[in-house]
Design brief:
Distance between the termini of chain A: 38 Å
Largest sheet of chain B: 7 strands, mixed
Mean pLDDT of chain B: 91
Helix content of chain A: under 10%
Number of helices of chain A: 0
Oligomer: heterodimer
Number of helices of chain B: 0
Distance between the termini of chain B: 34 Å
Low-confidence stretches of chain B: none
């Protein structure tokens, strides 16, 4: 099945550093979502993007919907230990019946205090 | 208070057994889903239901049978469990995609281990 290419797969950073991760696809998407998953829990929605070029922030998180509609990125500024977890991008294709989301492989973030 | 709740959280069973996972959402969403997360954390859709009607069946083996008695519930029954069925299964629900906030909410998962 189709996948989104998410990178990097893992990151090990120092507390206070900024983080960037991105997702690319060969297909056009009309919605991009970014989720965070903590161990033993389900993914929790961080940011939703609906329009090409849209830039949206949620606290220290900022995400953008790429102009080509084939990519998106997520930035986390001034990371803190509780940012640890797996971050997933997810996309919804145009004309999608049934609300199916296609997920990236995830970026596992580790933050060293 | 829980938006999407699924039970049980852990399920350990022997090969060949039949088991069910239940899911309920109190968000008033019309669409519910089952996703499977494998050992590499990859999330893939299995089924989508809209107002009790099956919309998506993503080439899942016939041993998996979802049932939606009403739009707030979507259960997953699995027959003749196999080792390869071991995974974390997530229920989710969503609003229709219109303008404004898009709610696509996941439950906390059911970790199924087949031994």
């Amino acid at each position: 099945g189709q996948q989104l290419n998410q990178s990097p797969q893992s990151m090990f950073i120092q507390e206070g550093e900024d983080v960037s991760m991105n997702c690319t696809s060969s297909s056009i998407f009309n919605t991009w979502l970014w989720y965070k998953q903590d161990p033993g829990e389900g993914p929790v929605l961080l940011i939703a993007l609906y329009k090409a070029g849209e830039l949206t922030s949620n606290g220290r998180l900022t995400a953008q919907f790429g102009i080509t509609r084939k990519d998106s990125f997520l930035n986390i500024s001034a990371s803190i230990p509780s940012d640890v977890g797996i971050y997933f991008c997810a996309g919804r294709r145009q004309g999608n019946q049934g609300g199916k989301l296609i997920f990236g492989q995830g970026t596992e973030l580790s933050v060293k205090p | 208070d829980t938006a999407v709740s699924q039970t049980p959280k852990y399920l350990v069973t022997q090969m060949g057994n039949d088991k069910s996972i239940k899911c309920e959402q109190n968000l008033g969403h019309d669409t519910m889903y089952w996703y499977k997360q494998d050992s590499k954390k990859f999330l893939k859709i299995m089924f989508s239901y809209n107002n009790k009607e099956l919309i998506i069946n993503e080439t899942v083996p016939n041993r998996f049978s979802p049932k939606s008695p009403d739009k707030a519930h979507l259960n997953l029954h699995i027959n003749s469990l196999e080792l390869g069925d071991s995974a974390v299964y997530f229920c989710a629900s969503s609003t229709p995609l219109r303008t404004g906030p898009y709610g696509y909410t996941f439950g906390s998962g059911t970790r199924l281990t087949v031994v």
